[in-house]
Design goal:
- One of its GO terms (biological process) is pyrimidine nucleotide metabolic process.
- Keywords: ATP-binding, Cytoplasm, Kinase, Nucleotide-binding, Transferase.
- The chain has a single domain, classed as Rossmann fold.
- Helices cover about 55% and strands about 15% of the residues.
- The strands form two sheets. The chain has a five-stranded parallel β-sheet with strand order 2-6-1-7-8, with helices on both faces. A three-stranded antiparallel β-sheet has the order 3-4-5, with helices on one face.
- The longest helix has 20 residues.
- The radius of gyration is 18 Å and the shape is globular.
- It starts with a helix and ends with a helix.
């Protein structure tokens, strides 16, 4: 199905696409590319967690202090989060502050595990993420969301559900390039600690390395962005045909 036919079918049927995967699997890059080709919105759920981490740090939260988990959960209710779902140029605001660049700083990557493993925060995030996805679908378009538990908790009834995997070294190289712009040994080691720590922390609250029933696996290890994007779009096209496109 070409891009025009796919967009026309989505305009009639709407679509929700859920992509899960570990850090560095390429899910953000691929999700943006799929959203662009399909003409749908892009929901960066990781940016939502990063934004709350930024908000907590800016609010002076000490993640090691007693009661910090409850405090962070209360901040989620107070956070005025605005996301631009344009896959070409996504932006994030908390209140009047644009935090698009700030939430990608290494300090956020080091602290985010305290937020992403907070069960009250995860419940808040799941509700908010699902609301955004379903609103986009009901409006005759759609949305692709990526994260750790989109296929299982946030939107288990998504039209297309994908688990995107890659071997650990490939993931480390991708994340190091994203954060530092190179793969210098010292940067690789710093990111290795971040990625492994995030995987360990998140695996305590969600199983994101094994596909749930009905979730399709795409291994990106030996594929470029175009190859992985094509694999996901093939699943989108399959769903659209089944639903009568």
């Amino acid at each position: 199905m070409n891009d025009d036919a796919r967009r026309a079918a989505i305009g009639r049927l709407g679509i929700t696409v859920a992509i899960d995967g570990p850090a560095g699997s390429g899910k953000s890059t691929v999700s943006k590319a799929v959203a662009s080709r399909a003409g749908i919105g892009y929901l960066d759920t990781g940016a939502m967690y990063r934004a709350l981490t930024w908000f907590a740090l800016e609010s002076g939260v000490d993640f090691g202090a007693e009661g910090s988990a409850e405090l962070v959960a209360s901040l989620a209710d107070r956070m005025r989060l605005r996301l631009d779902s344009d896959p070409h140029d996504p932006h994030v605001w908390v209140g009047e502050a644009e935090v698009t660049a700030a939430i990608r700083e290494p300090r956020i990557a080091l602290a985010i595990r305290h937020v992403s493993t907070n069960l009250r925060v995860r419940a808040w995030m799941a509700q908010e993420q699902r609301r955004r996805m379903m609103e986009a679908r009901a409006q005759g378009s759609g949305m692709i969301a990526e994260g750790r538990d989109i296929t299982t908790v946030v939107c288990p009834d998504a039209d297309v559900r994908v688990l995107l995997l890659a071997d650990e070294e490939a993931r480390l190289r991708r994340r190091t390039l994203e954060l530092y712009g190179d793969c210098a040994p010292e940067h690789l080691e710093a990111v290795r600690e971040q990625v492994q720590g995030r995987d360990r922390a998140d695996s305590a609250v969600t199983e994101f390395m094994k596909p749930a029933p009905g979730v399709r696996v795409v291994d990106s290890t030996g594929l470029d962005v175009e190859g992985v994007t094509g694999a996901v779009l093939a699943l989108v096209d399959e769903d659209l045909r089944v639903r009568g496109a």
